[in-house]
Amino acid sequence: MLKGKNSHSVTPSYVVSGFSRTRTCALMMMALFTAGCDKAQLLAPTSSTISVSAPTRVLPSGGSTEITAFVVESAGTPVQNGTTVRFTTTMGHVDPQETQTRNGLALTTFFAGPNSGIAEIRAISGGATGGATGATGGTATDLNVVRITIGAAAVNTVTIRANPGSVGPGGGSVELIASVVGENGQTLEGIVVTFNADQGSLSSSTATTNTSGEARITLTTSQQTVVSATAGTKTSSNATVTVRAGPIVSITCAPASGTGNCAAVQASTSNNTATVLFTVTKPTGSSTLRTATIDFGDSTSQSLGNLASGSATITHAYNGPSGSTALAYTATVQSTDITGESASASTTVIITPRAVLTPLNVRVEGTKETATAAGQRWTFTATATGGAEGTANASIESFAWEFGDDATATTSSNVTARVYETTTTGQRRTVTVTARTADGRTATGRTEILVDKFP
Q1: What are phi and psi of 144, to 5 degrees?
Q2: Which of 60, 222, 272, 308 has the lowest tally of Cβ within 10 angstroms?
């Protein structure tokens, strides 16, 4: 203590100053700690699993779709509400990039942008992992990544047709229709198609597909013209627009069962064929025809007469592909009028592979009866399973039996019997049955029996 003139106690200024600085520092540290706690994110704990999904895996350029991340803890329960999930993408963008879970779900929107390609959208949160699952072909796929094909990258097949398939002798205009199909036969919207023609003029060199997967432009020509269409890396087969002198014909195609067009008709699992319906029409204004013939594009054809009634409906079965690649057929109607002038029209039929069938298995069981002087009678029952889609069983047309004693039989029933003659007990016989399906597939089962003699 220092004393002044009036002998009052005075606290030194450096003591007050030091106390203020100490208190101020403490308060600042507490404020920083509190602010840090307020900003801390709640993240998924270690061993959590995160999976990402989208309602569609194909988008047009500039399209968008919702992305959902589902986050669960190791016990299988959703993570705590408010857990932060961050989304990233290799193409386009997601908005928002960070969001919080509710009942384990975090939502964002993916925007494709103008470019074509395959976007990989990934979700991340703390210690959560995506795990892996087997994908088609045996390739492991991360569950926390969803892949979306954008724009022209999704194109699998491009076909082109002209409507009508010819112009008048003085020239004219036809509509060129390019059909763009992705994997599994789905039509693709919003795909830019480039058209090419070796004659005449096009109303536009490009067009964008509509909701039916079709892009349309107009060709004006006075000469026979070869046209094609390109989308992404795929180019259609050439189509020819002819110059007619008078006759006009058109052709359309539809599946024999179901609805839609013939851009993706799946082959039957039983016989690997697909049946379609062609409608061939001679519209009003066409010259009188002498003959009309449809060439199915598979080395077969059929005469349609002169189409006096104006149209004809033709049913035709196409063979499906033997592998995993679709087969395309071009069906063409060729017509000739009474003056010898001709015109044609075409349509494309695409047959996709039939569904995968399960293996066909056959099991045979034998039931013996008491041996008699005439021999010992055995009853055999064959059971065929599999050979169809999913858990269904194939329809069996016949059973071919070999009884192990040079005797054979063929039955439509799965049950048969055989009386064995023997002079010794315990003769071993191998009984074999071969089941044949309606489409010619076979499978064999066998069993061994011991034949007893009469006492």
Answers
A1: -90, 20
A2: 308
Give the position of tokens 């290799």.
90
Look up tokens 């450096």; give the residue: 14
In this structure, which topology does domain 360-451 adopt according to CATH? Immunoglobulin-like (2.60.40)
Report the CATH number of the 244-355 domain.
Answer: 2.60.40.10
Give the CA radius of gyration of the chain.
38
Query: Distance between CA atoms of 85 and 89, rounded to whole angstroms?
Result: 14
Q: Give the separation between CA 310 and CA 289, rounded to whole angstroms.
A: 10
Preceding amide of 164 cis, omega within 30:
yes
Do the bridges between strand 225-231 and strand 239-243 make them parallel or antiparallel, or are there none, so unpaired? antiparallel
Class of 49-153 per CATH?
mainly beta
49-153 and 360-451: identical CATH topology? yes
In the block, residue with structure tokens 């024999």:
256
Among the four given CATH numbers 3.30.420.40, 2.60.40.10, 2.40.30.10, 1.10.540.10, the one describing domain 157-236? 2.60.40.10
Per DSSP, the residues of 348-366 read EEEEEPPPPPPPEEEEEEE
Domain spans of the chain? 2-39, 49-153, 157-236, 244-355, 360-451
Q: What is the pLDDT at residue 331? A: 98
* pLDDT at residue 39, rounded to an integer: 60
Q: For the beta carbon of residue 352, count every other beta carbon within 10 angstroms.
A: 22
- Weakly modelled stretches of the chain, pLDDT under 70: 1-39, 131-141, 244-245
pTM of the full structure:
0.40
What was the pLDDT predicted at 198?
Answer: 97
Q: Residue 41: which residues within 8 A CB-CB, separation 6 or more?
A: 84
CA 430 – CA 428 distance, rounded (Å): 7
Whether the Cβ atoms of residue 419 and residue 393 lie closer than 8 Å to each other: no
Q: Output the six-digit token pair for 57.
A: 């895996």
